[in-house]
Amino acid sequence: MIKRIAFLGCGSMGEAILAGLLGSELSPSAVVSTVRRVERAEELAHRYGITALAGAEEPDANSLAVQGADVVILGVKPIGIAGLCREISPTLDARTVVVSVAAAVSLSQLSSALPPGQPVVRAMPNTPLKVRRGVVALSAGPTTTAQQQALAHEVFVSSGVVLDVPEDAQNAVSAISGSGPAYVFYFAEALAAAAEEFGLDEDTARILARETVAGGGLMLTQPGADPAVLRRGVSSPGGTTEAAIAAFQAQGLAGIIAAGAQAAAARAAAITEELSAG
């Protein structure tokens, strides 16, 4: 059970994780966060009752935050992860689990910037964590024990589904669930645009698209839901939906989606290489 957790950097994703944790049994007194600006630190402290330190005011904020922490969440951009790891290394307890939510930062890159044997976990969360409907894929480092991995699960389980995956699957996870919400939003944009082409006003078009996508997603969360079965349930033979699906197939929509996912995965791999070269 987590007794103390540090969030180093607390942007929108970090705040979503934080809010989920505090919605479980974790006390605000168990949380410390570091951010750059004093105003942001004051905002987090006021909103959640946690301890929040601003680097602009306390240069050693990150090192102070990790002292005695069971888990440390690295919430800065990928390019800043290695430097942050080196900064906190002298203060980390050997048993503290370091969890990175930065895309494309490998376990070996984390480990190389931390003390030898430090427990590390690579996480790929997605933005629906903000509404407690996220999915998070975790990959644990070789020195991370099952108990330490369970602590990483505890960080995310109140905000969504948590899966354990081998690290070589992380780029695929990033392409599907990490970037996936943007694909859904893009589809909703296109659906609303199509509605406007029929002559519907903008507000009506957006409501139709938004609620249709949200309602369909909710149906997919029901036990045993299968997207193909649900699709066939709406597609009456010779009907309007069947005509639309046939048009999607003729335009190669499935292939377009696959190509987008491949491009996202390739970019994730490229970022990992760029970080190694840097």
UniProtKB/TrEMBL annotation:
Segments forming domain Pyrroline-5-carboxylate reductase dimerisation: 167-269
Return the broad EC class: oxidoreductase
Q: Which reaction does it catalyse?
A: L-proline + NAD(+) = (S)-1-pyrroline-5-carboxylate + NADH + 2 H(+); L-proline + NADP(+) = (S)-1-pyrroline-5-carboxylate + NADPH + 2 H(+)
Q: Which domain of life is it from?
A: Bacteria
Q: What is its EC number?
A: 1.5.1.2
Question: Where is the protein situated, by its record's location annotation?
Answer: Cytoplasm
Entry binding sites for NADP(+)? 8-13
- Please list the GO terms describing molecular function: pyrroline-5-carboxylate reductase activity
Binding sites annotated in the UniProt record for NADPH: 62
Q: Pathway, per Swiss-Prot/TrEMBL?
A: Amino-acid biosynthesis; L-proline biosynthesis; L-proline from L-glutamate 5-semialdehyde: step 1/1
The answer to keyword ATP-binding applying to this record is: no
An example of a Pfam family matching this protein is F420_oxidored
Give the matching HAMAP family: P5C_reductase
Q: Which family does it belong to?
A: Belongs to the pyrroline-5-carboxylate reductase family.
UniProt protein name: Pyrroline-5-carboxylate reductase
Origin organism lineage: Bacteria, Bacillati, Actinomycetota, Actinomycetes, Micrococcales
Task: Give the gene that encodes this protein.
Answer: proC
